[in-house]
Amino acid sequence: MDAAHMGADLEKVLITEEEIHAKLDELAAMIAREYDGKDLLLVGVLKGAVMVMADLMRALPMTAPVDWMAVSSYGSGTKSSGVVRILKDLDTDITGRHVLIVEDIIDSGLTLSWIKANLESRNPASVEICTLLRKPEAAKVDVDVKWVGFDIPNEFVVGYGLDFADAYRGLRCVGTLAPHVYS
Ligand code: XMP
Ligand code: MG
């Protein structure tokens, strides 16, 4: 499928590429101030956070290393199962380090609260979360998120790393899918 067709599957664009980049620049400035002089490790959650990480780390005026975790909480559907399994763990020992989890989206919050608790059990200096998107109406658990790009309505979104059945991650914007795509 080419880019034009991918775009045609969208019902509406919620956040444009320009808005995403402007927001990530803002967040990067705040994050840089917070971690100035500290041993910061960026932890991305695969696969959705790939785009956020790529743009956020380039906007950060610091040389923070990056590591990745992969967990499964969703099948190819659109509902959180609440069951989290580590598919790929960190390569890095985070003892005594400042960890910033970089995420694409917080929906029910189940995945992120599980990941945060898991990382906190490894005795890091701190664990904070930066997410590009959050759905406040979908929250099932309270997660303490330090940096949020955009609060969005409780709708399934794709693009900028977010997928439907592993497709649409390459879209430069974030949008909702047209009904014909689901059926
Ligand atoms: P929970 O509900 O545990 O979900 O906070 C977190 C993970 O679920 C995925 N997710 C989405 N993926 N569009 C997507 O493409 C969405 O609207 C959406 N909502 C949740 C995502 O992987 C996230 O890390
Ligand atoms: Mg994700």
Write down the CATH topology: Rossmann fold
Largest sheet: 6 strands, mixed
CATH class: Alpha Beta
Task: Output the number of helix runs.
Answer: 5
First and last CA, distance:
18 Å
Topology as a string of helices (H) and strands (E)? HEHEHEEEHEEEEH
User: Helical amount among residues, as a percent range?
Assistant: 25-40%
The order of strands across the largest sheet is: 4-3-2-5-6-7
How many runs of DSSP E, i.e. beta strands?
9
The number of domains: 1
Pathway: Purine metabolism; IMP biosynthesis via salvage pathway; IMP from hypoxanthine: step 1/1; Purine metabolism; GMP biosynthesis via salvage pathway; GMP from guanine: step 1/1
Cofactor: Mg(2+)
Protein name: Hypoxanthine phosphoribosyltransferase
Enzyme class: transferase
Helices and strands, with pairings:
Elements: H1 3-8, E1 10-15, H2 17-34, E2 40-46, H3 50-59, E3 66-72, E4 85-88, E5 98-106, H4 110-120, E6 126-134, E7 147-151, E8 157-158, E9 174-177, H5 179-182
Parallel strand pairs: 2-3, 2-5, 5-6, 6-7
Antiparallel strand pairs: 1-9, 3-4, 8-9
Magnesium ion is lined by residues 45, 48-49, 103-104.
Protein name: Hypoxanthine phosphoribosyltransferase
Catalytic activity: GMP + diphosphate = guanine + 5-phospho-alpha-D-ribose 1-diphosphate; IMP + diphosphate = hypoxanthine + 5-phospho-alpha-D-ribose 1-diphosphate
InterPro entries: HGPRT, Hxn_phspho_trans, PRTase-like, PRTase_dom
